[in-house]
Design goal:
The protein is α+β, with helices and mostly antiparallel strands. It has two domains: 168 residues, no CATH class; 136 residues, no CATH class. Helix content is 47%, strand content 16%. The protein is built from eight helices and eleven strands. Strand 8 and strand 9 form a beta hairpin. Helix 4 packs across helix 6, helix 4 runs parallel beside helix 7 and helix 6 packs antiparallel against helix 7. The radius of gyration is 32 Å and the shape is elongated. 23% of the residues are buried.
Length: 313
């Protein structure tokens, strides 16, 4: 069909239909209990269609059919867990439902999220569909463009090809993933909203303090100007106080954030609570906010009339 770049059959769908099985390491003759192992079986076009890269080794081919040498691919996390410091390619595993001696690992894939965006172990293995015990399969279709608008076109085409099926259901993958993202998006929105509110309150407070300080120092500033202080000197004098407040706040707030950051890390998605880039960005925003909040009082101070300031009581 025009607009379809690839398609593949598979037996599970991330966040919707998952499977797992017990694995046996044949070389060491021990059951592998190092976490939960997700199972996926698919046709040779599976990895291209779902967008999972094969990092090392090879993907499935049409030669991986029933009766041929049994093969499998494993995720990078699974390879590092079961064979630390060794190359997993060439190792042999047996699944608890297998009658063959073992399956040879022929490729390593990048990690994916299969059942949870935050707590997924990333340990996943893949079987050729022709060598699996699957009794059903689903069709994955990669669309060029907006898959949501193309879903009904795909459904109608499949319905004609499958007249015995009462109704073919086509679901865009984002409709399955969006519910998993919604809570994280809501949390991120709330973090941003409260952060902006705190930043505005800090800017208003800093402006008030600097403005009050300028009003209290009107005579001093006028005297400085009468003795030859230039406008940039007065501007810097006031801005320096604002920046000093900001740096002090960054040091104290940064220390508190480092101390309590670990406790809020579970609320963050794919981000460390002690990420230095985040702290650097926050420091820059706070210093710029302090400068912005100090500009108006600084400009007001630079326009003080020395003659009026000298008579100021």
């Amino acid at each position: 069909m025009p607009g379809v770049s690839s398609a593949a059959l598979a037996v599970t769908v991330p966040f919707y239909m998952t499977m797992s099985a017990t694995l046996f390491d044949v070389n060491r003759d021990t059951v592998a209990h190092s976490g939960r192992f997700g199972l996926q079986a698919g046709s040779p076009e599976l990895f291209r269609t779902v967008g999972t890269r094969v990092i090392r080794g090879r993907s499935f081919t049409d030669a991986d059919r029933a009766g041929a040498t049994a093969v499998m691919l494993v995720s990078q996390a699974m390879a590092k867990t079961l064979w630390p410091g060794r190359d997993a390619i060439g190792e042999c595993l047996r699944i608890d439902v297998d009658t063959v001696p073992c399956r040879t690992i022929v490729g390593i894939t990048e990690g994916i999220k299969q059942s949870s965006l935050s707590n997924d172990s990333g340990m996943q293995y893949y079987l050729p569909l022709a060598q699996s015990h699957a009794e059903h399969a689903l069709l994955f279709v990669r669309i060029e463009g907006d898959a949501g608008r193309f879903a009904e076109t795909v459904r109608r085409r499949l319905q004609r090809l499958m007249p015995g099926v009462s109704f073919v259901t086509v679901t865009p993958m984002r409709d399955i993933v969006d519910p998993e993202l919604r809570s994280w998006q809501l949390g991120a929105t709330m973090f941003v909203a409260f952060g902006v509110l705190a930043l505005v309150l800090a800017a208003v407070g800093l402006y008030s303090v600097i403005a009050y300080g300028v009003a209290q120092r009107t005579r001093e500033l006028g005297l400085r100007m009468a003795l030859g202080a230039r406008t940039p000197d007065v501007l810097w004098l006031v801005l320096r106080d604002g920046v000093r407040f900001a740096i002090l706040g960054v040091v104290v707030g940064g220390g508190i954030a480092l101390a309590v950051g670990r406790s809020i890390e579970p609320l963050l998605f794919a981000e460390r609570a002690t990420d230095p880039l985040v702290f650097l960005a926050a420091t820059g925003v706070l210093v710029l906010t302090a400068v912005a909040a100090s500009i108006l009082p600084a400009r007001r101070a630079s326009r003080v009339d020395p003659s009026l300031a000298m008579r100021f009581d």
